[in-house]
Amino acid sequence: MNKVQLGSSDLQVTPICLGTMTFGEQVSEAVAHSILDRSLERGVNFLDTAEMYSVPARAPTFGATETIIGNWFAKNPGVRSKLVLATKVAGPSRGMPWVREGSGMTAADIVASCNASLKRLQTEAIDLYQIHWPERHVPAFGMVYYDPSRERSATSIHEQLEAMGSLVKAGKVRAIGLSNETPYGVHEFVRLAEQHGLPRIATVQNPYCLVNRTLENGLDETMHRLGVSLLAYSPLGFGLLTGKYDQSGTEGPNAPKEGRIAKFESVRKQRWGRPEALAAARRYNALARDNKLTPTQLALAFCYTKWQVASTIIGVTSVAQLDEDLDAYGTKLTPEVLAEIDKIRWDARDPAL
């Protein structure tokens, strides 16, 4: 795999990134380390995590994923220098009091979270430090509409940028990014960075897959024109686009017991658990089979080959899943298949937005 540059930063990454939010909940430390070993062996140099992982978020597992990765670094001297490491500071802790004291995300919170992540990761610097979700109250994680009456913002984007800039200046962070952002947020972060000589965001990490292409409703143009790279997460729609729920549905006695949507009620209540999302996924999965592809191959090839995507974040629970996802790289979709994908989207829209 050829490396791609993230935004205007000096970070060069593979077009596939290993996501790690399953480590510490669905995946034990031993299995996580074997997945990390295999990913590196297969040539992936990009690793993404977050302070709030593993998922689903719970107080007992807060920071568990970073700790597992840090232990792997300690066990394998020299590995850290081969990787581009990304992690995230959690946004306002709405409904998650274990994230931090208070309900906001202050400049001091950003610095404290970074220092805690560095300690758990057992590293001196984070290559890409991202704001996991906006400090502003925006529609995300299944919310559809922006509601000004719910706005409780207390820390300006300028203050957030200054905090990130202090981390870059201190050598603790190389580049910065956003996640679950809107076109307004991307524009404002870039505008203020350029106006005040602060670090410019290199990336935005947002959902992008066959059942959620909302990025194409304007955010893709914003990122293209501003030179910001997309890190696409949930390319398999939390498993909907693997076909494993096609016959059983996402709940009930026949649903795959280890699938995230089936296993965790909190996930099933979110966007990925909507009946409309499963109905659309079944149509995409049938299209894959009709064209002698697996559902996984179709869904990943869609992300791997889209001009909007710099790197696709894959999350796995086994080495076998990792190999399957990596083996899908290089799969080409014909113009006819792409046209059929667009027909389904026109009918089903973005049910997992």
TrEMBL record:
A Pfam family: Aldo_ket_red
Domain NADP-dependent oxidoreductase positions: 15-344
Keywords: Oxidoreductase
Gene3D superfamilies listed in its UniProt record: NADP-dependent oxidoreductase domain
PANTHER family to which the protein is assigned, alphabetical: NAD(P)-LINKED OXIDOREDUCTASE SUPERFAMILY PROTEIN, NADH-SPECIFIC METHYLGLYOXAL REDUCTASE-RELATED
Name by which UniProt lists this protein: Aldo/keto reductase
Organism: Polaromonas aquatica
Lineage: Bacteria, Pseudomonadati, Pseudomonadota, Betaproteobacteria, Burkholderiales
